């Protein structure tokens, strides 16, 4: 059972991002990428709650992309969708086979992410959606900024809203202002048990390195993640 108090906090962050970046318009049909992890499950709950009272009327369509991992299970996503009165749409892919068995990538994250995005865009189009919502949150944004800065020498991050002309699809990230700890709190209070990560590269990626470094920085200097986030998006706003 979704915890109403924790959901209200989640929806407050979500509405702030939706309003700030004009993520949703009247009549939108939004595919919500639901992997079974905590972030995507929280996103689904937040958008479902928001759809009930938001002044701009929109529809959400939960989409699960089966990656082809061994023992892959969508029962958690399907169960939550049933509780919310939604129907989960599942699509098969061969991403695991291509990345880990055929290509045998030593650094698989980039290729995997690109293939996953492409498959989700195609699924969203097939379902008649004009937007795709992804579960990237506040901590993801700060980690991305640090990774780009340290690895590539760029002060950059993903955009809150991205229009993709080739697929005529708009990607939105409604959890942009939501700290990961608040997502974890919502999931825990609601008694939701996310699907365990089964990626062979999990725990040994550049993103995990950035997460650990940022956690150490935050312990030494509380508020540093928020300042990094604010600095980037203030710069972004000045450039527009």
How would you sum up this structure in a few lines?
Helices cover 51% and strands 12% of the residues. It is an alpha/beta fold and 240 residues long.
Written overview of the protein:
There is one protein chain. The protein has a single domain, classed as Rossmann fold (3-Layer(aba) Sandwich). It has helices at residues 4-20, 38-50, 75-84, 95-102, 109-126, 138-152, 180-189, 206-220, 224-239; strands at residues 28-33, 58-66, 89-92, 131-133, 161-164, 169-172. The chain has a six-stranded mixed sheet, with helices on both faces. The N and C termini lie far apart (42 Å). It is of the alpha/beta class. The longest helix has 18 residues, at 109-126. It contains nine helices and six strands; from the N terminus they run H-E-H-E-H-E-H-H-E-H-E-E-H-H-H.
Label this structure with key terms:
240 residues, alpha/beta, Rossmann fold, 9 helices
Topology, element by element:
Elements: H1 4-20, E1 28-33, H2 38-50, E2 58-66, H3 75-84, E3 89-92, H4 95-102, H5 109-126, E4 131-133, H6 138-152, E5 161-164, E6 169-172, H7 180-189, H8 206-220, H9 224-239
Parallel strand pairs: 1-2, 1-4, 2-3, 4-6
Antiparallel strand pairs: 5-6
């Amino acid at each position: 059972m979704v915890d109403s108090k924790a959901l209200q906090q989640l929806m407050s962050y979500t509405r702030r991002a939706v309003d700030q970046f004009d993520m949703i318009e009247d009549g939108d049909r939004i595919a919500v990428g639901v992997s079974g992890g905590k972030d995507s499950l929280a996103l689904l709950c937040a958008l479902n709650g928001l759809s009930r009272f938001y002044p701009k009327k929109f529809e959400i369509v939960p989409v699960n992309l089966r990656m082809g991992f061994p023992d892959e299970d969508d029962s958690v996503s399907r169960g939550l969708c049933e509780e919310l009165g939604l129907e989960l749409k599942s699509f098969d892919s061969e991403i695991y086979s291509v990345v880990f068995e055929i290509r045998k990538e030593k650094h698989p994250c980039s290729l995997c992410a690109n293939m996953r995005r492409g498959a989700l865009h195609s699924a969203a189009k097939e379902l008649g959606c004009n937007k795709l919502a992804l579960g990237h949150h506040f901590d993801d944004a700060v980690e991305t900024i640090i990774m780009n800065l340290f690895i590539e020498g760029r002060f950059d991050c993903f955009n809150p809203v991205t229009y993709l002309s080739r697929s005529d699809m708009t990607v939105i990230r409604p959890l942009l202002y939501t700290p990961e700890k608040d997502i974890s709190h919502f999931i825990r209070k609601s008694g939701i048990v996310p699907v365990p990560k089964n990626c062979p590269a999990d725990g040994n990626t550049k993103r995990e390195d950035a997460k650990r470094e940022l956690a150490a920085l935050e312990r030494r200097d509380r508020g540093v993640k928020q300042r990094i986030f604010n600095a980037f998006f203030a710069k972004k706003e000045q450039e527009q």
